[in-house]
Each structure stands twice: as structure tokens, then as C-alpha cells.
């Protein structure tokens, strides 16, 4: 009887951070070399190829365009940032985070949408 071939296993690591996020992956058993996604879509060449991109989303409220995310978002106050902290029960956040401008802005943008 021929030996069964092992099913390939792809291992993904997702770092969903408050300010930056990234993805790494490897094929289990195949030298376990970890590779990082670095070819993110970006707004300008100056942003370069980085392992992480901003944890940011921009919704085009005035038209039907797809939302922009990561390094493609504009650098202004209409970009949703720090939204990860909206997943946490507010009472579990330290006061300086709960009352921060960034979190208040994220909350307001979520309610606006």
C-alpha cells in the first residue's frame, strides 16, 4: 500500500493591533519559514513595503466607492482608527483610554456610519 500524502497545512498569524496590523504565514512542516505580507496597497511610494499597515478604515459616505483601509487611507479626521478598542467592554478600559480623543472619534464615526 502506498503511503498517504499528508495534507498541506498553512498556518496564518494575524496581528490585529490598535494602531497597526499585520499578517504572517508559513507552510507547516516545510522548513517552517515564516513569511510576512509586505506588499500592501498604499497611497504613496514613500510608505514603502512594511510588515504592518495602519489599523484604519475610510468609508466614502458620499458615494458608493469601496472603503479604503490600511495604508490607502487619507491622513485626516474622517478615518476610523482605534476601532479595535470598541470591541472591549468600555468599563474594562483604563480611564485615559476610555476618554481619549482617538476613542471618542472612533465611537462618533461608528455612530455616523
Automatic annotation (TrEMBL):
Species this chain originates from: Fusarium oxysporum f. sp. lycopersici (strain 4287 / CBS 123668 / FGSC 9935 / NRRL 34936) (Fusarium vascular wilt of tomato)
InterPro entries, per the entry: ATPase_NBD (IPR043129)
Protein name: Hsp70 protein
Gene3D superfamilies from the UniProt entry: 3.30.420.40
Amino acid at each position: 500500500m502506498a503511503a498517504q500524502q499528508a495534507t498541506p497545512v498553512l498556518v496564518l498569524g494575524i496581528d490585529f493591533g490598535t494602531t497597526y496590523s499585520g499578517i504572517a504565514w508559513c507552510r507547516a512542516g516545510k522548513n517552517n519559514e515564516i513569511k510576512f505580507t509586505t506588499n500592501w496597497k498604499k497611497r504613496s511610494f514613500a510608505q514603502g513595503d512594511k510588515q504592518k499597515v495602519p489599523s484604519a478604515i475610510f468609508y466614502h459616505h458620499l458615494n458608493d466607492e469601496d472603503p479604503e483601509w490600511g495604508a490607502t487611507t487619507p491622513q485626516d479626521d474622517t478615518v476610523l482608527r482605534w476601532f479595535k478598542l470598541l470591541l472591549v467592554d468600555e468599563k474594562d478600559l483604563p480611564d485615559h483610554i476610555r476618554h481619549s480623543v482617538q476613542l471618542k472619534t472612533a465611537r462618533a464615526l461608528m455612530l455616523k456610519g
